[in-house]
Every structure is written in C-alpha cells, then in structure tokens.
Amino acid sequence: MQKFIYIANLKMEHRLSLSGKIFLFFAVFLAGVSIGRTAELLMLEQPGCVWCARFNAEIAPAYPNTEEGRRAPLRRVDITRKWPADLKGIASERFTPTFVLVEDGREIGRIRGYPGDEFFWYLLDELIAKLDGPENE
Q1: Is 39-136 in CATH node 1.10.10.10?
Q2: Considering only CA atoms, which of 110, 105, 73 is closest in space to residue 88?
Q3: Domain range list for the chain
Q4: DSSP-derived 3-state class of residue 42
Q5: What is the mean pLDDT of each run of 10 residues along the chain (137 residues)?
Q6: Vertex 135, ends 134 and 136: CA angle to 5°?
Q7: φ/ψ (deg, to 5) at 43
C-alpha cells in the first residue's frame, strides 16, 4: 500500500510540475505580448472606392502572411461611419484609401492613396522602419 501511495505521489508531482511549466510558459508569453508595443496599419476606406478595390485585389489577400502584415496587422476603418473611439488621436481623412501606421495609439506616418503594388510595399517599408527608429523609442 505504501508503494502505491509513493507512486501516486510521484505521478501527482509530475503532473503539477508539467502544469506548472505550462502555466509559466503562458504567463511569460502573455507578459511578453502585453509589454511589447502594438502596431497596426489602418486602411481608411469608403464604399465605392475604386483604388480600395484595387488594393483589395493586389495586396490584401497576401498582406497577413507578410513580415509587414505580422508586424502591423491591417485594420479597416470605413470613413463614412462613426470614427472609432480608440482612434480619437488619429486624424481622419477624406481621401481613400489612406493607410495610417499606428503604434500604441500614436500615428507613425501615412500613405495617401494606393500607388500600385510595388510602390506601396516600398512606402510601407519606409514607415515600418520608423517603428524601430530612435525617434520612436
């Protein structure tokens, strides 16, 4: 009987240490997520925007799978609707599409219009480089 209790205690210790490891992993992961800066690329758009449709055809499908898309996920904002409360510090725009790179609620820069797929990536890379720049730290 004593041998059974010893084995049961070993198994319980193993389970606790495994669940402790899992808890620790998630605690560290979540702490890292909340500590890190959060960036997003706002796409200011409106219904009937031809250049928005072109962006949607040429860039939007691949964007989430790119390094830029992982660094600054795309968030769409319809300018014909009420401006989101969490973007009160970001100026609205009448021209669509306009892309606004935002980090921690602060505007880093914007691209007015959609200049075509190649030039868009070039301009976006310039904006994203500002995320790591000394003026943004």
Answers
A1: no
A2: 105
A3: 1-36, 39-136
A4: strand
A5: 52 53 46 59 98 98 97 98 95 96 96 96 96 68
A6: 90
A7: -115, 105
